[in-house]
UniProtKB/TrEMBL annotation, chains A, B:
GO molecular function (one): magnesium ion transmembrane transporter activity
Organism: Rhodovulum euryhalinum
Subunit comment: Homodimer.
Protein name (database record): Magnesium transporter MgtE
Family, similarity comment: Belongs to the SLC41A transporter family.
Family matches, as CDD domains: CBS_pair_Mg_transporter
Domain CBS: from-to ranges: 152-216, 217-273
Main localization (coarse): membrane
Length: 461, 461
């Protein structure tokens, strides 16, 4: 089947996202080379949906769409587009359309748009900007990647401490041309342009003109250092329910503002990263080329191969036992997979708890005790189950006893490794989501096989 | 070691979250029964941090803290608290403090606070509310769980179509007492109270008093049906960068408003759920009691045991082969773990792509082809590696060839199952994050062992 295939049975997405009917209509218009029809179909779509469409079709279709309806691809669509596709799409757009597209964007969106591009493409876009915007963008790019400085928008609405509500409103009306599209607070600054507090627009609107801004300050006010990692920024927005926060340089001067939608994006990407890393997938976008994806996944599989070989070496020590009691070979996968699963359960909970800062130095030991207790209880239950399986299946009470004991050892060790490995990696400054899995499964395989086969050769031979 | 242990080496959290120094100071004050000192230490903390503290200590410590400083636990702390702890904490608070605590909350926070409580505790809190709030909360509870109706706040700021900026500002000033703490748009409604558009506060502030609201409407305006699942609401906020959205009933009448911070919470919980489910952890809060956690994880381990037994049954078919060539038993874990890992890689990417709607009926077949191609390429590479390992380690070219072929088969099938299983489950309305893992590993184990041992008994015996 080919890319145009539309699945009529797929549930409609409650009016959100692209429904399959629209996609098929668009693909038909493209196939027919009907530019007018294509424009009509794009017209009602949100930029984010147009971007999704481009991500869902293959490179050939993308090219056709871009050639048929270049005007559709304004700055918003470009900034919604998956990084892996931006270079490709931008390379296709006529320079004048690209220039027009980026001029309408806020500085933070332009930064987000170009920070991952190749130098020549970056310059092409920078040249398209008016000087003032260009300076803003280049300034932002001077901050470290994944820092608040990259995330913030430089268009800020600020007022001096002595202003009243009336003066502020008059100022806003007088400067409406230069106001950002979206802003939620007026940031009050001292003569050194250091933020001292902020006022919500709701308070401004509902207070009498004579009220002083300083009497309307919000408790939620939290300046963010421009060099702070964006993950910390996202944490702060989520933890303290911030809507916008002023960004300050080392001298405490106001250099920009971060709004919740930017923070929401970061949080989204962080989660994505955690999930993919836990699964041993480096990046993993559906748009990467096969060779690219293979390259991303290979290293993880290779590390896994090495650990699997370690497990095999353990088994190799017990070849005689296996040769005499083949049932051992039959039961080995159960040991491995139970240990691996129990370990994954513990380590996933631990990785999440570390990410959300629910697991800290003050409760780590209680959590360890708790996990081990859980491992022991489950281990005991499955020891019983497997003991019976061993007895019934192979008619050997001894074999049943061996696998039962091995199960308790295995699940307890799995629980212990599942918590200690990520916590240790976190202390060492390694992302626990990235490396925990391999370590934990290696531990559970080695310990599991050793306990099972070792016990077996003592008891059964 | 016990709970008071503080790890001085843990990195400071850039001033966010609880730093260990504060935690230890608080625990010392509790141990000393020093209520005044405890109050001083709590004073600068954000409610979210106080909630985190309660989550990090054990039940005994929590009790002591609550008895020493009950006044600290206002409504905000309660609504920040992990669901698993709310009942316990609320049960401890003196009724009058609890009543005072909930009265200051917005209706959506009260709903979030009590929806998971036992009936008696719910009633206790409802009784504490003023009649109008109580009606609002009971109304919200009448909507299905996880629906927009539960998420929205009923305090809305609305204006009739014919109003001007001036009239609206005057209205806001006249009613400032009843305005919600946070609001970002004035929702314009027709005479039937059906929302027809909204105006950002920024536009209101920066426009002249004579301008009509209808001339300031935002494109982003998207009413949300009150019965819509909260996951769809979160998707819409994230996809379309909404800050707030009006909620309408079946007749299109305005019944409330959802703000981005609520949507951000839902998105956060959805991600959490995905990660935990992928790992076969039902709920998994660090605060659950051991028995509770054991109960959550047991079913997944049990299902895994059954699938592992299926794999064992496959192996049992080849006991003779293994008895004659014990090397097979030594190499089996490599087959199993490579297949399992490759499958997990594919299925995780697929599960995420389904969640973000990047994987749809219009591109599923291209993605399948892509994944299989990746599986084949990686399979070929590892076939070579393992072929050599088999040859070198066991000095048998035939054994090397067998495991090489098995590796290609295994990784290709893993890739195929990794994408088809979640897509199929999604179609059937089952959460792919929940069940994919078990199915995929069963497929890879069974196919892997069958291919490896089957080939072996044909080639080697």
């Amino acid at each position: 089947m080919d890319d145009e295939v539309i699945d009529k049975t797929a549930p409609e997405e409650d009016g959100y996202g692209l429904d399959n009917r629209t996609v098929s209509a668009i693909l038909l218009a493209v196939a027919a080379g009907d530019a007018a029809r294509l424009a009509d179909l794009f017209e009602p779509l949100h930029p984010a949906d147009i971007a999704d469409l481009l991500e869902q079709v293959d490179a050939g279709k993308r090219r056709e769409i871009l050639l048929l309806a270049p005007r559709q691809f304004d700055g918003e669509v470009l900034s919604e587009l998956d990084e892996t596709l931006r270079e490709e799409v931008i390379a296709f757009l006529p320079p004048e359309i690209l220039a027009e597209a980026v001029r309408e964007l806020e500085s933070d969106d332009v930064v987000d748009l170009i920070e991952d591009l190749e130098k020549p493409q970056q310059d092409a876009i920078l040249d398209a900007l008016e000087m003032v915007d260009r300076v803003a963008v280049e300034q932002a790019l001077s901050y470290p990647e994944y820092s608040a400085g990259r995330l913030m928008q430089r268009e800020v609405v600020r007022a001096p401490e002595h202003w009243t509500v009336g003066e502020t409103i008059d100022h806003l009306r007088a400067n409406k041309k230069t106001l950002p599209d979206q802003f939620y607070h007026v940031i009050v600054v001292d003569p050194g342009i250091r933020p001292v507090g902020y006022v919500t627009l709701g308070k401004l609107l509902s207070s009498r003109r004579s009220v002083r801004l300083t009497d309307l300050f919000e408790d939620s006010f939290r300046p963010i250092p421009v060099t702070q990692p964006d993950s910390e920024v996202a944490y702060a927005f989520n933890q303290y329910h911030l809507i916008s926060a002023p960004v300050v340089d080392d001298a405490g001067r106001l250099v920009g503002v971060i709004t919740i939608d930017d923070a929401m994006n970061v949080l989204d990407e962080e989660h994505e990263e955690d999930i993919l890393r836990l699964a041993g997938v480096g990046e993993g976008s559906l748009n990467d080329r096969v060779i690219e994806t293979t390259r991303q996944r290979f290293p993880w599989l290779f590390v896994n191969l090495l650990t699997a070989i370690v497990a095999s070496l353990v088994i190799a020590q017990f070849e005689d036992a296996i040769a005499q009691v083949v049932a051992l070979a039959v039961l080995m996968p159960i040991i491995a997979s139970m240990g691996g699963n129990a370990g994954t359960q513990s380590l996933t909970v631990a990785v999440r708890a570390l990410a959300t800062k629910d697991l800290t130095g003050s409760n780590v030991w209680r959590v360890v005790r708790r996990e081990v207790a859980v491992g022991l209880v489950n281990g005991a239950i499955f020891a019983l189950v497997m003991g019976l399986v061993g007895l019934v299946w192979f008619g050997s009470a001894q074999l049943g006893a061996v696998i039962a004991v091995a199960m308790v050892v295995n699940l307890s060790v799995a629980a212990l490794a599942g918590i200690l490995v990520p916590v240790t990696l976190d202390k060492l400054g390694v992302d626990p989501a990235l490396a925990s899995g391999t370590f934990v499964t290696t531990v559970t395989d080695v310990v599991g096989f050793f306990a099972f086969l070792g016990l077996a050769s003592v008891v059964l031979l």
